[in-house]
Structures are given as C-alpha cells and as structure tokens.
C-alpha cells in the first residue's frame, strides 16, 4: 500500500520502518530538509535514530501535499501540541474515508480534548480514525526487537485494518474499542515517568519508583473511568505496559527529563540538549483540565505540574505526597 507517515521524529521513523518492512511504500513527511535529504540519499534519519539503516521503501518530503497524495492510509506522529494544526493541514488532501491512525500522546491544552477528538472535530467520520499506543521505545522497534502495541477505534473495521497493516512477528498488534481509555493512558503515563525520574534523581530507589508507578495507575484508572473509558484498559499495553517501559528505561525522555528536574535544570535546557519534545511536561498541565471537569483527585500529577511549571521544590513535593492521609488502595473506582 501507499502509506503517509506525518512526522519524522523517533517514533515516526520507527513506525515507517515497520510499515516498509511489511512491503508498503512509505512517504515520510518531515519539517527539515536535512532529514529529507538524509532519508532519501543515505536511507538514514540524520536527526533521530541516526544509527538505524532505513528500508529503501521509505522516501521523505517536506511537502504535506506530496506526502498525502494517493495515500491509502495516514499515520500521524506529530507532537500533541500541534494536533489541530496537523488535522487542519489535511483539508482537501485526505479523502473522507481514508483511514487515519494517531500515534501521538497528549491532551489538547485548553479544550481537554484527546488527539482523536481533535481529528474528529476537524475531519469528521470518527469510524475511520484509530489510535496506537503501547510499550514501544522507538530505539527498539526500529531494530526489530520484539514489541507489542494496541490499536483502538470505534470502527471495528478500521481497527482490524491497522492491525493488519502494522502486524509483524516482532511487532504484535492487538485491538480495542476503548479509544479514550487508550489515549488517556498514553498521555498519563508520561507524567508518572517524570515523577519516577525525579525520584531517582533525588536519590530514592526502586521501591519509590514502584510506589509511584502503581499509584500512578490508580490515578490513571480513576480519570479513565470518569471520562467514560474502561478501567481495565489501564492494566493493558497502553496503560501498565507503557508505564513500565516509560518509567524504567533509559530510552525514556520523560524519565530522563525528571532527572534533569531533580538536578535543578529546566524543560528548555532538556529540549535544547536532546531535540525532543517532553510530552509529559505538557500533559501534566493539560490533564488538569480533565481532572477539574470530572472532579478526579490526581495527587502525583498535581505535584509534577507544580514542580515542572510552578518552580515548586521537589523535596517538598515528596514530603506532601508521603504525608497524605491513608486510604483504601482502590478508592474512587
């Protein structure tokens, strides 16, 4: 098939490799001409995953119209902060029934909308929209290391279509109908990974990390259930699976950013050093819109937001979390 991949960062590059290895012609849209040149001439992305040789079936372009022309499927892998801009750029270029899968993770600032809701608002036809999420570090997926992911859509045919499109022996694909649950898990786990990174940066150990992860899943479950998703989704690939990978791996930008914060460094410094967007930094702020609207208590998320955006002392945040009143383990569910 002819597949357009919109976004040439680490994840867009890795997913392009999966699709091309399945025999598809992939047109990869990139913002920078240097990336286009590297992919087309040297079959490498000179900015992300630079050591990975790319399948020759991947070609790159800076033209959105060129990338989308004749595409039988569209894969969106741009930062969550540009979701609406990306959706609007599809106007007149993507047919009303062309399947679109969103692989970005976050919540729109101000509206509290999930990426799939933004695309539905701009493009319509929710049944042709899907989302993809799971414990998938791009650095491993591009190398063919065994991984699994979940694809969710309210259209069963759309979910099955993308399941077949991406499926490989080393990249197992599962389907779900819980679109909002999968998307919220995808955004939420990045926030908890920052908290885990901060805790390690402060000198705490694995017990503390495990506490933050499991209590983070409890927070995630309360909010997912409140907005109409399924709490069980939080125990699957998009929830606990992605939480484990993101909170424990040195590949994780959110975890490593948490260590930056513990060392007194800033978000701007991290993004300048790594050329990567820290989705959890934005998510800890945008998720507040949902927690307030649905009146769901999210103590870890609130502390991460205070530390990252409000200059709150990390040690004081830790004291406030451990000093909270004792409760039953699964309150609010």
Quick take:
Catalyzes the reduction of the glycolytic intermediate dihydroxyacetone phosphate (DHAP) to sn-glycerol 3-phosphate (G3P), the key precursor for phospholipid synthesis. By secondary structure, this protein is an alpha/beta fold. Helices cover 50% and strands 11% of the residues.
What secondary-structure arrangement, pairings included, does this model have?
Elements: E1 2-6, H1 10-21, E2 25-29, H2 33-42, E3 58-61, H3 64-68, E4 73-76, H4 83-89, E5 100-102, H5 115-123, E6 129-133, H6 138-141, E7 147-152, H7 156-166, E8 171-176, H8 179-201, H9 206-226, H10 237-248, H11 253-262, H12 267-274, H13 279-294, H14 299-309, H15 314-322
Parallel strand pairs: 1-2, 1-4, 2-3, 4-5, 5-6, 7-8
Antiparallel strand pairs: 6-7
Helix pairs in contact: 4-5, 8-9, 8-10, 8-11, 8-13, 8-14, 9-10, 13-14, 14-15
Largest sheet: 8 strands, mixed
What separation lies between the terminal Cα atoms? 44 Å
Mean pLDDT: 94
- Please bin the fraction of helical residues: 40-55%
Low-confidence stretches: none
Please give the count of helices: 15
Roughly what fraction of the amino acids lie in strands? 5-15%
With strands numbered from the N-terminus, the spatial order across the biggest sheet is 3-2-1-4-5-6-7-8
Structural class by sheet pairing and helices: alpha/beta
Compute the number of strand runs.
Answer: 8
Shape: globular
Please state the CA-atom Rg, rounded to the nearest Å. 19 Å
H/E topology pattern:
EHEHEHEHEHEHEHEHHHHHHHH
EC number: 1.1.1.94
Keywords: Cytoplasm, Lipid biosynthesis, Lipid metabolism, NAD, NADP, Nucleotide-binding, Oxidoreductase, Phospholipid biosynthesis, Phospholipid metabolism
Function: Catalyzes the reduction of the glycolytic intermediate dihydroxyacetone phosphate (DHAP) to sn-glycerol 3-phosphate (G3P), the key precursor for phospholipid synthesis.
Family: Belongs to the NAD-dependent glycerol-3-phosphate dehydrogenase family.
């Amino acid at each position: 098939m002819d597949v357009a991949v919109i976004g040439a960062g680490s994840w867009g590059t890795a997913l392009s490799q999966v699709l091309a290895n399945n025999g598809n012609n992939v047109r990869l849209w990139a913002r920078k001409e240097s990336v286009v040149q590297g992919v087309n001439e040297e079959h490498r992305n000179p900015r992300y995953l630079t050591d990975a040789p790319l399948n020759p079936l991947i070609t790159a372009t800076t033209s959105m119209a060129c990338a989308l022309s004749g595409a039988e499927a569209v894969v969106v892998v741009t930062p969550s902060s540009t979701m609406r801009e990306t959706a609007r750029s599809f106007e007149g270029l993507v047919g009303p029934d062309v399947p679109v899968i969103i692989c970005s993770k976050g919540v729109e600032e101000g509206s509290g909308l999930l990426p799939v809701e933004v695309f539905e608002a701009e493009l319509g036809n929710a049944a042709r929209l899907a989302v993809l999420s799971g414990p998938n570090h791009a650095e491993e997926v591009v190398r063919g290391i065994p991984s699994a992911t979940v694809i969710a859509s309210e259209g069963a045919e759309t979910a099955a279509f993308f399941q077949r499109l991406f499926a490989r022996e080393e990249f197992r694909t599962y389907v779900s109908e819980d679109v909002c649950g999968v998307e919220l898990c995808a955004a939420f786990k990045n926030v908890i990974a920052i908290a885990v990174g901060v805790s390690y940066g402060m000198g705490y150990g694995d017990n503390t990390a495990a506490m933050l992860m499991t209590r983070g899943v409890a927070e995630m479950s309360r909010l997912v259930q409140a907005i109409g998703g399924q709490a069980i989704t939080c125990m699957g690939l998009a929830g606990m699976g992605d939480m484990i990978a993101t909170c424990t791996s040195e590949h994780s930008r959110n975890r490593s950013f948490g260590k930056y914060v513990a060392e007194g460094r800033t978000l701007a410094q991290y993004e300048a050093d790594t050329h990567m967007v820290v989705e959890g930094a934005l998510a800890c702020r945008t998720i507040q819109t949902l927690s307030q609207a649905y009146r769901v208590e999210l103590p870890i998320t609130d502390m991460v937001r205070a530390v990252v955006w409000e200059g709150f002392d990390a040690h004081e945040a830790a004291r406030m979390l451990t000093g909270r009143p004792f409760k039953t383990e699964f309150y609010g569910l």
